[in-house]
Amino acid sequence: MRVALAGLLIVASCGTEAPQREPVVDEPDARITDRTSAVDAGVARAVDARVPEAAADAALATDQAAGPDVASSGDSGAALDSRAVDGGASATDGGPAAYRICATTPKFTPGGELLALKVDATRPLRIGAGAKMIDPFPGDIDRMRLMDRVITPEEVTAHFEQRYEPCVAAQGCVAEWGFEAIEAGAFAGIGGAAQLVGQVAIVAGQDGKAARFDGTGALEVAHAPALTFSRSFSYEAWLRRGPCPPTFSGKCNMMRLFDKSDQLRLDAHAGGLRFSTTSGIYHSVPWPAQDKWTHLAISYDVRDGVRFYRNGKLQKHCPLP
After folding, report:
1. pTM here?
2. The predicted structure's pLDDT at residue 9
């Protein structure tokens, strides 16, 4: 993937004339917008409790220790606008069975906002696996961006169509890696060099090159002030999941896409995406099929909640109750 470094656009392969790509997932076939009907159907309960911040970290740690959630039976592609959580039946006809609709008991400030993110300044940003190669992701990652603001729906659509603007800190884009080449044991990028830990290969990407992870390596980016996220955060990348290697001890039950702390990390597993934050763990629609490029974007904001996008379209919004 071609990227802009030091505010200069290196190549123009991501310009506005790039052809649009065919989405690799089905169109949404269901939408939940009626909170009352969900409750009446017995598939959700309203989230309106305010958990004191002092108890938030302990509750989050307990939830994370519980492991993967119940696996999905399939991918309905439903776009969910949910204020409820559930551990029981499917929220839509034919949708993901026994999968939580939105979040695991979100935590709020006394003023009604989600808790701000907490980033461990002593811990690097890890891509493709957790510490000590825990929960490795088998697959390819291309053009990964981080923002200290909410990515807009228009930006998500443009980036899915390969119409990228340069990543500039003044515009809220604080990090980007295109994974074009390895020099001195690292991928260069805005926000810091992504150092290889173990083996990471270079393969053909969605546009240009991509990083391939097979469970024997990951990337680490040293902490920098720009990676200290608080009230707002956005992540986006092109992802292509590969088959689960038989040598993986975890059998791909949990696959780490990135983490900056236990309270800012993104995992994929059999049931979908699992976005862990200071305020709680948020769940998306199921993970797409393997061997297909998928554009993923996620935003977090203390006043707006969490949004999941896939292939340029909003798939799920977890707003404040």
Report:
1. 0.71
2. 36
